[in-house]
Specification:
It is built from 11 helices and 9 strands. By secondary structure, it is an alpha/beta fold. The strands form 2 sheets. Strands 1-4-3-2-5-6 form a 6-stranded parallel sheet, sandwiched between helices. A 3-stranded antiparallel sheet has the order 7-8-9. Strand 2, helix 2 and strand 3 form a beta-alpha-beta unit. Helix 7 crosses helix 8. The longest helix has 16 residues. It is globular, with a radius of gyration of 18 Å. The protein starts with a strand and ends with a strand.
Length: 256
């Protein structure tokens, strides 16, 4: 696996690899886990060249403390990516993607309205902008995203459709731990009692009913930010809730 931290180097490296070969991109913010491994496997199965980006995107964090606390371990993540079939890793500094004077943003509506947007102002502006930049830099034939972030997936699909981008967005099913909790880098912040309480989230989603889901969460002492059904690449029951200081999101697809 080769690792690059500049746009120019990445483009130069990918130019000869492209040559009629299918290129897949997996955008990540690092803290890689088995959920990311599933994305890498999906890309590996469909593409000759697999590119992963590793960038903690500051523009999608409303809370500066949350940004500062986000785990960063390039050496560990690079090893994980290489072990799981990534050919090229793009790990730029913030100044590479947001140079001085940067002032152009993608501001999505539609799928970006409500749910997460009500609690994380400008979050999807940051997501849409960085994904468009990564698509332009890597020029993949396909990009791979997990269904755990269902609203993000819907926003990215809308971005590609509305701006006539020449790539496919491939959705990969949510990967769960043996206890049912959706894999997330944020899970590491949960204490043992908090993790036990967080298991109410997959139990609530298993009801496939927003009223019953809310009852289960309330019984577990969880006051969710939202429990809602929305059209996110299909009718989806989505939940967001804080367990202690950790905010978790999860969902289940009701119908495609």
């Amino acid at each position: 696996m080769e690792t690059f931290d500049s746009i120019a180097e990445l483009r130069q490296a990918l130019a000869p690899l492209r040559d009629g070969r299918r290129v897949g991109l997996v955008p990540t913010m690092g803290a890689l886990h088995e959920g990311h491994a599933a994305l890498f496997r999906a890309a590996r199965a469909e593409c000759v060249v697999v590119v992963a980006s590793l960038f903690v995107n500051p523009s999608q964090f409303a809370d500066r403390d949350d940004l500062s606390a986000y785990p960063r371990d390039l050496e560990r993540d690079a090893g994980f990516a290489a072990e799981h079939g990534v050919d090229v890793l793009f790990a730029p500094a913030a100044a590479e993607l947001y140079p001085p004077g940067f002032a152009t943003w993608v501001v999505p509506a539609g799928a970006a309205d409500g749910l997460e947007a009500d609690y994380r102002p400008d979050h999807f502006r940051g997501v849409a902008t960085i994904c468009l930049k990564l698509f332009n830099v890597a020029r993949p034939d396909a990009a791979y995203f997990g269904r755990k972030d269902a609203q993000q997936l819907a926003v990215i699909k809308q971005l590609v459709r509305d701006l006539d981008l020449e790539l496919e967005i491939r959705a990969v099913e949510t990967v769960r731990d043996t206890d049912g909790l959706a894999l997330s880098s944020r899970n590491a912040r949960l204490s043992a009692p908090e993790r036990e309480r967080a298991l109410a989230i997959p139990r609530a989603l298993a009801t496939r009913d927003p009223d019953r889901a809310r009852e289960i969460l309330t019984t577990a002492g969880i006051e969710p930010d939202y429990v809602a059904v929305a059209d996110l690449d299909g009718q989806t029951l989505a939940v967001a809730a804080r367990i202690g200081a950790t905010r978790l999101i999860d969902n289940v697809l009701l119908e495609r």
